[in-house]
Write a structure and sequence with these properties.
Elements: H1 3-10, H2 12-23, H3 35-47, E1 52-57, E2 71-78, E3 81-91, E4 110-111, E5 114-116, H4 120-140, E6 145-153, H5 164-169, E7 180-183, E8 191-196, E9 198-207, H6 222-242, E10 259-267, E11 287-296, H7 302-319, E12 324-333, E13 336-337, H8 343-356, E14 361-365, H9 371-376, E15 383-385, E16 400-402, H10 403-421
Parallel strand pairs: 3-6, 3-7, 7-15, 8-14
Antiparallel strand pairs: 1-2, 2-6, 4-5, 5-16, 8-13, 9-11, 9-12, 10-11
Amino acid sequence: MDRLMQEIERREGDLVALTQALVRIPTLNPPGRHYREICDLVGQRLGGRGWEVQMVRAEGALGDSDCYPRWNVICRLEGTRPGECVHFNSHHDVVAVGEGWTRDPFGGELAEGRVWGRGACDMKGGLATSIVAAEAFARLRPDFRGAIEISATADEESGGFGGVAHLAEQGFFDPARVQHVIIPEPLNKDRICLGHRGVWWAEIETKGRIAHGSMPFLGDCAVRHMGAVIDEMERTLFPLLAGRRTAMPVVPEGARQSTLNLNAIHGGEPVQEAGYTGLPSACVPDRCVLTIDRRFLAEEDIAAVKSEVTAMMERVRAARPGFRYEIRDLFEVMPSMTAEDAPVVRTVQDAVQRVMGRSAEFVVSPGTYDQKHIDRIGRLKNCIAYGPGILDLAHQPDEWIGVQDMVEAGQVMALSLETLLG
């Protein structure tokens, strides 16, 4: 067996312990807790092994505040000879715990060959795997050329603007500085993720007129208007989207079509503060706001995606006297897909074959991740997602990551480093 593969196996206990330590830091986003603490853990570990460590706060970025500063850590190890740079990027934030857990979400429990906890799969196990793989490679190949970088970055779960987007704006992903990027998102250990679908978030507001609830005929109910909008979506827009398919290898199968999620809706009197025990006032709601999450395909044009929603609203307006509305853009991301013959793709594909004895499956993510910023802001196309973990476990109760999956993914990462920098 290759010495690198043996070295990763030998470090299994360290890999588990590091994953547990990362999971036990509750980096909840929102609001963005304990970001500096987890960056310090990564920075102190690698800094103590001779890596250069930079702590970067995304001051002024979306979400950054003195209460919840957006901290990122970038660690770099220089080789002995000139060469290219391979960068492993992982986000350190995790989503809310939610209901339904049977284990401590931040306990980092080791049981049944798995590490359990919020973020174990998405994606602290991937962060730990990249660290251990890079350390093992550097120990056995100390004369490597080029450089290795590992980053732990903020806010991927809320768009990445306080993390990778900020770093890309500062030049950290300039192709003259970094040539290969691997993002250890949990897409399964035998898959290479080439990119993601596009996304458009928007608010649709229907407008009405307030009046006394006992005399609704003197007002105009914005909630009823929104009901008509949702009915039109059900009758025309949802069937239209279900009929569209992409040639991109999106997983799971249902995401190969265009999709629309109704993310949130609110109309009428605001929700009262906790502790209020009174009744609501009797008013006709004069506004209703619907937040939509539209995922679109590489074959679709963003202008057409927006115009079909506008056309739908105009159909409703033509059928309802007094109907008024507004559509507000929240954000948009274009689809991204790295070519199958890109250097990092070919390298990881070969490493998967060596470790697992089978060809890697090429996939595309149904949702966006930080590749969007490396691609669009950094202008670096040679980027993929590859890491341990089962995609379907992300954001679920009783989240876990398999220890053997991390070991095998670590072997793939180490062998990829050997090919690119050895």
